[in-house]
Structure formats: structure tokens, C-alpha cells
Amino acid sequence: MATEREILTYELFGTAVLDLAQQVVDSGYEPDLILSIARGGLGLGMGLGYALDVKNLSAVNVEFYTGVEQRLEVPIMLPPTPAAVDLAGLKILIADDVADTGKTLEVVRDFVADQVAEARTAVIYEKPWTVIRPEYVWRHTEAWIDFPWSAAPPLVHRAKPGS
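User: That's the sequence. What structure does it adopt?
Assistant: C-alpha cells below.
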């Protein structure tokens, strides 16, 4: 297990959101909808929505990571998912916290591909081995990332289904 860590603070998160939003503006892309990947992309999607004046926000929940450097074999989309009719013909911006393997972004991009006019991706961090190259990236790293919202353990421990 890697010992080096990338530490993102809430203050740096605010900087990342604004920098990513500026990249989108500078590219000329004007999304109609921001689709956040839960849970990690929810804060980014909200921040980008405000910065880009996009009120049409949606989320998709994809489970992949189960712990530090522990993941399922493939990402699984969990219900509810956005209806195809709600995405038809839109330019969307897919927001997530990190493109690590890229498989989560790939699943979501493939899910919307036949419905939308165009889909681009924005992430706070990109790792060099990702299978998806996001159009908008704040930083590149090879380290495990400590996000401010997940660095501390939960205040409660909920029973997992089947346990």
C-alpha cells in the first residue's frame, strides 16, 4: 500500500472548483446539465453548477471503492439513475472527484453516450493510469488522496446489507 498521500483541504477544494470552472469557460463549453457521480463528485458538481450558472444538476450513484485502495472488480451503477429522456440532446458535464482507474467515469460516459449531444468530464484529480482522460483536470497525482469529507471516519457505522 502506498504511503504517500495527496491532501485536499476544504480551502483547496474551493480553489479547485473555481479553477475547473474557469477551464470550462475558457474552452467555450456551455453545459446544459451537470451530472455528478455520487458520492465524491457531488460537491464538485454543486460548486461547478454555481460557478457556471447551471441550475440543471443531476446525480448518478456508482459504487466502486470499498476502502483505501480496495475496489470491486467493476463499477456498479446503483438506482435511481437519470431517465434517458431527461438527458436527450443535452450537453452535459460529468463531475467526479478523481479519475483513478477511470472505470467509474467510463461507465457513466457510456451510460449517457447515446442520449446526449455531448459529454465532457471534469475531475479534481487525474492519475496517470486512468482509462479516461477528462477534459478538465485540476491536478495530477499518483498518490492516494485524502479528501476533506472522507479523511475522518464516519460518526456512525451503518449496517451493510447482508451483514
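The first strand starts at residue 5 and ends at 7.
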